[in-house]
Amino acid sequence: MAAIDHPSFGSLDPNRVIIFDTTLRDGEQSPGFSMNLDEKLRMAEALAELGADVLEAGFPIASAGDFDSVRAIAAAVKGPVICGLARSAPGDILRAAEAVRPAERRRIHTFISTSPLHMKHKLRMEPDAVLEAVTASVTLARQHTDDVEWSAEDGSRTEPDFLARCVEAAIKAGATTINIPDTVGYALPEDMARIFTDIRTRVPGAERVILSTHNHNDLGLAVANTLAAIAAGARQVECTINGIGERAGNASLEEAVMAMRTRQDRIGMATGIHTPGILRISKLLATITGFDVQPNKAIVGRNAFAHESGIHQDGMLKHAGTYEIMTPESVGWTKTNLVMGKHSGRAAFRDKLRALGYGEIGDNQLNDAFRRFKDLADRKKTVYDEDIVALVDDEVMRDHQRIRFVSLDVHAGSRGPARAELELEIDGELRQAGASGDGPVDATFKAIRSLFPHEATLALFSVGAVTEGTDAQARTTVRLEEGGKMVDGQGADTDTIVASARAYLHALNKLLVKRARTAPAAMSA
Fold first, then answer.
1. Strand ranges inside 369-455, DSSP E
2. Average pLDDT over residues 215-236
3. Which of 138, 166, 181, 475 has its CB 3.0 to 4.6 Å from that of 173, i.e. a possible disulfide?
């Protein structure tokens, strides 16, 4: 393949794969994974530091909140191309153009369904009308930016001849990236190889644009399909951190990137991802959303580099390459976590935060996090990196919130109802209340309700341990639902009840600032 001239990337090396991250758009459409503006900005900055080439920041027409978050990211985040999603309707495209306008480099990503099933039952449009919409939408988008991506929704189930006609129309209208999504996770790797080979060999002008692949994981084949598309000529990969996304999720960024890096001998492709930052951003997303990855998740699961079998341990002691195809350090794991204790000072704590990927955090946040670290070190015999990450993230994500945890005393046992005495700071005012309940968590949550009455209902409550041992920090997740809208909150503390209170308050604070979402139909691609 020859180099491609692209308005955002210049002359693109044919062996370079563009990483298009859609964590903030497709990933956020997962039930329970919604993020507020501050959380989206944190993720966007982290993705920029990781080296993602394109950030699909949201779907601006979906709601005022989505528009504001895309515009804020476009104004604040430097480095990646900032992209907004739009259907083929003129209103969608104009809204996306306005949202991404502040970006140094911007892209409008417009799409329409092309499969017979979608055209008949969802769009209720004839093929010729769809072709006209392709041309009109790309033409309008090009009036607002030189970087336009066009997607064939449900492309993997589209008839090859019609798909080729749509791609040709999009290229003629000015699209610079052509994306063929496996929207429902139906394709096999040989299907993706055929589709991209067909486009490259049949469609006039295909050699002048970047071909992109976007794969869902309904059959567990998203990354395999991604690699098959790359082998057949795709040079942009659309993916998400931890593989989050609608239904079973999207192709996982960390898996696709590390497959290309580890099997450079066969794949022969490179990306701009700073791979030692992968684990940090995986944990950041888990903290923000409250959804940890499963222990055996490739690359970022806690068992990804663990060896229990005696045969494996023996091999590892003799040579790490016997059972590890990549080093833990290459994706951000460290060989030792035990370096901090109650005698560590503020400077050492700041250096540890830099080593864990936090960069510079504000003095107030640092002071609060350091105070909680010292309290933790006094209570906990061993302080691990995971403990520090949990308490710092717990502190950072609560900045600028209306309701703050101050103190909690709980009496509980087998002889009577539990009692919780709670003190909160609400809009700068200290308030106290007590409540009884069926167990300490129930009593604590009732005390919160008495101090700050609200109509939200508890939809989920879960508890997990950050590290091992009886003195491990608990990480709790609380989901509140109100008027059909859900928010998740997280809390961490060695005391499970305190962690539960923190998680409830985090969710409640998010609920107070959450804007109503009115999502239009057909948000997927």
1. 403-411, 418-426, 429-437
2. 98
3. 138
Give the per-residue pLDDT at 53.
Answer: 98
Distance of CA 422 to the CA centre of its chain: 34
Rounded to two decimals, the pTM is 0.77
Q: Which of helix, strand or coil describes residue 411?
A: strand
Percent of the chain having pLDDT more than 70?
88
411 touches 517 (CB < 8 A): no
Mean pLDDT, the chain, rounded, equals 88
pLDDT (0 to 100) of residue 382: 66
In whole angstroms, give the CA distance from residue 46 to residue 38: 12
What is the helix (H) or strand (E) element at residue 10, kind and residue range? strand 10-12
Predicted confidence (pLDDT) per residue in 88-119, tens digit: 999 999 999 999 999 999 999 999 999 999 99
Q: What's the pLDDT score for residue 350?
A: 81
3-class DSSP assignment, residue 148: strand
Contact partners, residue 52, CB within 8 Å, separation at least 6: 19, 20, 21, 80, 253, 272, 273
Strands 210-215 and 474-482: unpaired
When pLDDT is cut at 50, 70 and 90, the band that residue 522 belongs to is very low
For 413, list phi and psi in degrees, rounded to 5.
175, -170
Q: What is the spatial order of strands in the sheet that 418-426 belongs to?
A: 403-411, 418-426, 429-437
Give the β-pairing of 4-6 and 10-12.
antiparallel
Cα–Cα dist 230/223, whole Å: 11
Most confident of 98-102, 335-339, 505-509: 98-102
Instruction: Give the bridge partners for 65, in sequence order.
Output: none
Residue 358 has pLDDT above 90, yes or no: no
CA dihedral (148, 154, 156, 158) positive or negative: negative
Task: Report the alpha-carbon distance of residue 18 to residue 341 in Å, rounded.
Answer: 42
- The answer to whether 506 touches 522, Cβ cutoff 8 Å, is no
Return the bridge partners of 205, or none.
Answer: none
CB contact at 8 A, 57 and 24: yes
Q: Are strands 474-482 and 485-493 parallel, antiparallel or unpaired?
A: antiparallel
The tokens describing 263, both together, are 């099997």
For the stretch 45-93, pLDDT in tens is: 999 999 999 999 999 999 998 999 999 999 999 999 999 999 999 999 9
Q: Name the 3-class secondary structure at 77.
A: coil
Cα–Cα distance, 478 to 325 (Å, whole number): 37
List phi, psi (to 5°) of 187. Answer: -75, 155
132 vs 173: CA distance, rounded Å: 11
Measured in residues, the chain has a length of: 525
Please state, as a whole number, how many other Cβ atoms lie within 10 Å of the Cβ of residue 247.
14
Q: Which helix (H) or strand (E) holds 448?
A: helix 440-451
Per-position DSSP letters for 323-340, written without gaps between them: T-SS-GGGGT--S----B
Q: Judging by beta carbons within 10 Å of its beta carbon (0-12, 13-18, 19+), is residue 188 exposed, middle or buried?
A: middle
Count helices and strands in the chain by DSSP H and E runs: 17, 16
